[in-house]
Write a structure and sequence with these properties.
The complex is a heterodimer of chains A (268) and B (380). Chain A has helices at 53-60, 83-90, 108-118, 124-137, 154-165, 184-201, 212-218, 236-240, 245-252, 254-267; strands spanning 13-24, 27-38, 42-46, 68-73, 93-96, 172-176, 204-208, 221-226, 229-234. Chain A is α/β, with parallel strands linked by helices and 268 residues long. Chain A starts with 12 loop residues before the first strand and ends with a helix. By secondary structure, chain B is mainly α. In chain B, strands 1-2-3 form a three-stranded mixed beta sheet, covered by helices on one side. In chain B, a hairpin with a 2-residue loop joins strand 1 and strand 2 (18-27). In chain B, helix 1 crosses helix 2 (62-81) and helix 6 runs parallel beside helix 9. The model of chain B has no long low-confidence stretch (mean pLDDT 87). The chains are: A alpha/beta (268), B mainly alpha (380). The interface between A and B is medium-sized, with 33 and 34 residues. The complex binds adenosine-5'-triphosphate and magnesium ion (MG).
């Protein structure tokens, strides 16, 4: 749909990863990984299971301390900031974790109201009302707000988690496989919601996904994680032409071809 | 958005062309409180014919759009989102938020007003849930007994290893704390007894007091209460966290019976260890009382023992011991049942653990009181 609305040439870098090395025990997950993310773009991160997409995301948001290398978000190295400064920067991004990570002892509405109360200093009443709107924005019915996370379906958890990620109107949205576990219609709605939000709010979206349709319909650029580094980071048609067995298998396998076909048909 | 921003403002003016609402500044979460306050002021005065001008607005996010959309109402928000003179991004935002509010407002029900009726309703609900709770407990007792009956004749289904492991955890590991506790309570009872009886010159009967107290009541009661706190809670937490992670469902789908796998070994282990622990508590309590008798009443050990032997019949011991298996069964069943009641959250595990301890102590003391009445009537 809006895939080719890439910003003008002089692009501002909001996330800058240089020479990143991540290791767990003897297993090296990232080796000299470089990546830039520009303001206002939707960048899709793809790669096989276990290639370290989630770890990369966690490193960027400062939950994993890398062995070496540098990660800058808004030009700042999160790990070297004071707690207070760091919290200020963290307020500017919203994160949707792969498993939702909703607080199980709070209702969905309370989950979303929490950052509004804690960070934006809203009274509970206003926060709850605003939370209801964020829920609706993420496509959940209002009575879902009164439920506890354990009472939600997998797809509803994703939506509730998106609503919480959007609570503070962040500048960067980190999404870890947001459409996994959604039915195709909801997934498509989710995709267009993300594009709408990006267009309306000027969000930068860091999107980890396995969903080829999502890649084609939402992403301005796609970064392929393979062999412990970013193999390619470019618009999707360009990436699909990369001469690498994994990339070829990914984009030109049966599912890849179907998605390409659907995407091109959609454009005509 | 990093530059310091001016809070949004709204001015309503009237001229020849009619009323005009001009918005300016930043309509963002940062200024939410001011924006909401301003919107509340304007709420009544913005008529349907007002022209809305958004061209001077700086930044706008979903929170700001929410305030605007709520102020204008859904129809005019939709109209505004069609306004070609606004940048497409802003129109998209207004449309998205407007749609969201529509669905949101449709679903909101008016909160009911509190008062006497609500109080009655809550009392009624509490009674209802107490009754349901009791029924559930009875049902679970039934399920457990049925489980015992059906596995008793099928030695293949006996989970000996699990039972032995549970006996170690619930029985053996509790011995030191239980012995110490009973010893000290025994000593305290002896002190009290010797002081109270001394005024009648009957302090020698402290021995009988200790004997009666520990054989009939304290031995088994102390053990049961200790295990209610120690073991019922452990059972609930173990089974509850399995429940929370859908492991119980996994057991079922593998064609196994969670009652047979989880409940029976635990209840059986308690049935074995609680009577044994009761015996230890009786001995430790009597020893504790004895030590005080020797020290305070200057009794000789042989005199203490011969008095005990003369005045205590075997009935006293049996009367106390007979309660042990009943308590064990109830503690085990309540602990396991609460575990099965856990729902997804971490908090739920905590709530049911507390509930298991409270319930099992309550049931133990209730049964003990009933038993005391019964024994009295029977003259045992
Ligand atoms: N805390 C950890 N300790 C040890 N190893 C870890 C840890 N976190 C991740 N790993 C390892 O790092 C590798 C990358 O994990 P990661 O979760 O990033 O995969 P992924 O690319 O997100 O996969 P998927 O698509 O399945 O979500 C895996 O091999 C994983 O076992
Ligand atoms: Mg992952």
């Amino acid at each position: 749909m809006n895939a080719q609305t890439v910003a003008a040439p002089a692009r501002e870098t909001v996330i800058e990863v240089r020479g990143l090395i991540n290791r767990f025990g003897t297993q090296t997950v990232h080796e000299n990984l470089d990546l830039d993310v520009y303001r206002g773009e939707i960048i899709g991160i793809v790669g096989g299971s276990g290639t370290g997409k989630s770890v990369l995301l966690r490193t960027i948001i400062g939950l994993v301390r890398p062995i070496a290398g540098e990660v800058r978000v808004f030009g700042e190295n999160l790990l070297s900031l004071s707690d207070e400064r760091r919290s200020q920067v963290e307020r500017r991004f919203g994160v949707l974790f792969q498993s939702g990570a909703l607080f199980s002892s709070l209702t969905v509405a309370e989950n979303i109201a929490l950052p509004l109360i804690e960070h934006a200093g809203l009274p509970r009443m206003d926060a709850t009302r605003l939370a209801g709107v964020k829920l609706a924005l993420a496509g959940l019915p209002v009575d879902a707000g009164r439920k506890y996370p354990s009472e939600l379906s997998g797809g509803m958890i994703k939506r509730a988690a998106l609503a919480r990620a959007l609570a503070l109107d962040p500048e960067i949205l980190f999404l870890d496989e947001p459409t996994a576990g959604l039915d195709p219609i909801s997934a498509a709605a989710f995709d267009s919601l993300i594009v709408t939000l990006r267009n309306a709010l000027g969000l930068t979206v860091f999107l980890v996904t396995h969903d080829l349709d999502t890649l084609y319909s939402t992403c301005d650029r796609v970064a392929v994680l393979s062999q412990k580094r970013v193999l390619a980071a470019a618009p999707i048609d360009e990436v699909a032409r990369t001469d690498d067995p994994w990339v070829q298998a990914y984009f030109n396998g049966p599912r890849g071809r179907a998605a390409t076909f659907a995407a091109h048909k959609g454009k005509d | 958005m990093t530059t310091p921003s001016l809070p949004g403002s709204a001015t309503l003016s009237r001229d020849a062309g009619g009323a005009r609402l001009a918005l300016s500044g930043d309509w963002t979460l940062l200024h939410y409180m001011e924006l909401q306050a301003r919107a509340n002021e304007l709420a009544g005065t913005v008529g349907n014919d007002v022209k809305v001008d958004l061209h001077a607005v700086g930044a706008m996010d979903t929170s700001g759009a929410f305030v605007i959309a709520e102020l204008l109402g859904s129809q005019r928000t939709q109209a505004l989102s069609q306004d070609e003179s606004l940048p497409p991004a802003r129109r998209a935002l207004l449309k998205t938020v407007g749609d969201a509010i529509d669905t949101y407002c449709k679903g909101v029900k008016k909160p009911r007003d509190a008062g006497f009726v609500v109080l009655l309703e809550r009392i009624g609900k509490a009674m209802g849930s107490f009754w349901k709770q009791t029924l559930k407990l009875l049902a679970f007792i039934g399920i457990t007994l049925q489980g015992f009956a059906s596995t008793a004749l099928r030695p293949k289904h006996w989970r000996v290893t699990a039972v032995v492991a549970q006996i170690e955890q619930t029985g053996l590991d509790a011995v030191p704390i239980l012995a110490l506790l009973s010893f000290m309570v025994g000593a305290v009872v002896a002190f009290l007894g010797s002081t109270a009886l001394a005024s009648y010159g009957a302090s020698i009967f402290t021995v009988d007091l200790i004997g009666f107290a520990f054989l009939r009541e304290f031995g088994v009661l102390l053990t049961a209460i200790l295990l209610a706190g120690r073991t019922a809670s452990a059972f609930t937490a173990q089974i509850g966290s399995m429940k929370a992670r859908e492991e119980i469902d996994a057991i079922r789908t593998l064609g196994l019976d969670p009652v047979e796998l989880l409940v029976l070994p635990r209840v059986l282990a308690l049935l074995v260890s609680l009577p044994l622990l009761t015996f230890i508590a009786m001995i430790a309590g009597i020893v504790g009382g004895g030590v005080v008798c020797l020290a305070v009443l200057k009794m000789s050990p042989s005199m203490f023992l011969s008095m005990l032997q003369e005045d205590m019949s075997l009935t006293q011991f049996l009367v106390g011991m007979a309660k042990a298996p009943v308590f064990a069964f109830m503690i085990g069943v309540i602990g396991c049942m609460e575990g099965f009641k856990v729902s997804g959250s971490a908090q739920s595990v905590g709530e049911h653990t507390t509930s298991a301890v409270v319930q099992s102590i309550f049931v133990v003391i209730l049964l003990d009181a009933l038993a005391a009445l019964f024994y009295m009537e029977m003259g045992w």
